[in-house]
UniProtKB/TrEMBL annotation:
EC number(s) stated in the UniProt entry for this protein: 2.3.1.180
Gene name tied to this protein: fabH
Family (UniProt): Belongs to the thiolase-like superfamily. FabH family.
Name the UniProt record assigns to this protein: Beta-ketoacyl-[acyl-carrier-protein] synthase III
Superkingdom of the source species: Bacteria
Function recorded in the entry: Catalyzes the condensation reaction of fatty acid synthesis by the addition to an acyl acceptor of two carbons from malonyl-ACP. Catalyzes the first condensation reaction which initiates fatty acid synthesis and may therefore play a role in governing the total rate of fatty acid production. Possesses both acetoacetyl-ACP synthase and acetyl transacylase activities. Its substrate specificity determines the biosynthesis of branched-chain and/or straight-chain of fatty acids.
Source organism of this protein record: Nocardioides humilatus
Keywords: Acyltransferase, Cytoplasm, Fatty acid biosynthesis, Fatty acid metabolism, Lipid biosynthesis, Lipid metabolism, Multifunctional enzyme, Transferase
Active site: residue positions: C147, H283, N314
Segments traversing the membrane: none
Length: 358
């Protein structure tokens, strides 16, 4: 055949499926069908023991508690100690989520860990988490989508359960950003923090996770990024690890306005009006962005808004599940509530979906 192409023996239009038993000479693959719907069945969280007030941060960046709160709304954050590793925090949060869902770890088919601060290139944190949880050899992998990673994980878990590839999936957002934050960087030192949140996604009798709206704007990738390549840091014999840097004003403008449109798209795709929304759980970047989003979306007064950033700081991939767990624990959200999850960050990646709370 000219050009070395491969001749196909049989073909049929995509809209014309093969008859029962398949076409002659063609093997018809068997496919699995999962649950008609999926939902979040349980939520868990782990917050490091050490509480760090602004007073411990501001001297190194020539600032003040008042300035930090005006810029971000943050009063305190949590920093992990040596024992509170990415894996250890993930396991603790996952166990709480499994207990809340009433699911045995051996029933878990897949573990997804969203993080940018697991500092081993390989193996993934998820494989170690799956083992520590006591799963029966569950599939496990990490997702690197920065602050949007958890919402990416929920979208994949929804598709895995509905597609038949898994029945129960543990999705974790976890960070130890204190490892990769410069204490003297005035733009980031007061923002980033540590923690882990987890959910169990499994079959649902009714639609409980709406379609994801996600994407990226890689043209602006350098608005939030690791300052330098690991190889460059090693070659320069740098005194500190490569750390996160951010162009705060540009990120604020992008998130405040672009993400409002994404939020409305997620509501539209789920067939939910903004008046039917009970809770708004955005990435806990800072309170000013949350306020700007609420205004641009024209959120009704009855919608409860997550404000976990005030006490927990910006925990990147962990921020949405941590905020979700806190709203449930504090009674601001209850079973059956309709919530909009939206996250955005480095990349610039984003993801949003409407969910019904367990």
């Amino acid at each position: 055949m000219a050009g070395g192409g491969r001749r196909h023996r049989h073909s049929w239009p995509a809209a014309d499926p093969p008859p029962p038993g398949g076409w002659r000479g063609v093997t018809t693959l068997k496919v699995e069908q999962g649950s008609a719907y999926a939902g979040i069945l349980g939520v868990g969280a782990y917050r490091p023991a050490r509480v760090v007030p602004n007073s411990e941060i501001v001297d190194a960046i020539d600032s003040s508690d008042e300035w930090v709160q005006q810029r971000s709304g943050i009063k305190t954050r949590r920093f992990a100690d040596e024992s509170e590793t990415v894996v250890a925090m993930s396991v603790s949060a996952s166990r709480d989520a499994l207990e809340a869902a009433g699911i045995d770890p051996r029933q878990v088919d897949c573990v997804i860990v969203a993080t940018v601060s697991h500092l081993l290139q390989t193996p993934s944190a998820a494989t170690m988490v799956a083992h520590e949880l006591g799963t029966d050899g569950a599939a496990a992998f990490d997702v690197s989508a920065a602050c949007a990673g958890f919402c990416h994980g929920v979208a994949m878990a929804n598709d895995l359960v509905r597609g038949g590839s898994a029945r129960y999936v543990v999705v974790i957002g976890v960070e130890r950003l204190s490892d990769i934050t410069s204490r003297t960087d005035r733009g980031t030192a007061f923002i980033f923090a540590d923690g882990a949140g987890a959910v169990v996604v499994g079959p649902s009798e009714t639609p409980a996770i709406g379609p994801v709206v996600w994407g990226s704007d890689g043209e602006q990738y350098d608005l939030i990024r690791q300052k330098e390549d690991w190889r460059d840091a090693i070659a320069a014999d740098a005194p500190e690890m490569p750390h996160l840097v951010m162009q705060g004003n540009e990120v604020f403008r992008w998130a405040s306005f672009s993400m409002g449109k994404v939020a409305h798209q997620a509501l539209d795709r789920a067939g939910v009006t903004i008046d039917e929304l009970d809770c708004f759980i955005p990435h806990q970047a800072n309170n000013r962005i949350t306020d700007a989003l609420a205004r641009s979306m024209k959120l009704p007064a009855h919608v409860k808004i997550a404000r976990d950033v005030i006490d927990s700081g910006n925990t990147s991939a962990a921020s949405v599940p941590l905020a979700l767990e806190r709203m449930i624990r504090d009674g601001d959200a209850k079973s059956g509530d309709v919530a909009l999850l939206i996250a955005f960050g480095a990349g610039l990646s984003y993801a949003a979906q409407v969910v019904t709370l367990p």
